[in-house]
Amino acid sequence: MTAVRLRQVALVALDLEPVVGDLRRELGLEETEPFRDPGIIAFGLQNAVMAVGDTFLEVVSPVQPETTAGRYLKRRGGDGGYMAIFQVADLTAARARIAASGVRVVWQSDHPDIAGTHLHPKDVLGALVSIDWASPAGSWRWAGPYWTAAVPDHRPGGIVGVTVQSERPMEVARRWGEVLGCESRNLDGGAAIDVDGGVVHFVPLRDERGEGICGFEVAIPGAQSREMDVGGVRVVVEPTRA
User: The whole model's pTM is what?
Assistant: First the structure.
């Protein structure tokens, strides 16, 4: 892989199963059962992780009071986007860059085949961001045993974009670019960061819910272009590009 790749997008929902069911149906993911991580109970959550090509879509839901995710649900007025996970090729350089930028790390987990680094949302702005590394590069322990230190057969396609709304989209884009080691580019009223195989868009506030992930884009072989609202975000589906 090249320097940075958008590998996983997480949504947060008050009620897990309806959102998971809607996503599986709309994105054609019904043939494979989602991975349910028992370890996530340490955060007071339950989850479901679904493979979209070799990228991943996760939904988390609080099962205990006073969780970070639960407070986020209240703050944003319901279901919505929660976290973007980026995969980097050089973990040491990424963590040095994060430290130099003054961004606090709220959670870190290192394994022989994967490492995760969750960044403080008040330092990065826009959403919860994680900088992760995996070996082999196509593996992804967070998606369960089949993806742990291995790259199983999978369908083509995947998540190719995520959209973050903010009162200060250009400032947030520059901050994300700083921690990702990528240049941001200004657009009409917003900004963007190009990553391996996709793009992160930063746009002005679209509603009264405040700053956060408001949409993501998925490429699926043979799909008809369409848009829908699922789990409090706008989902854009497009056919894979030749």
Answer: 0.97
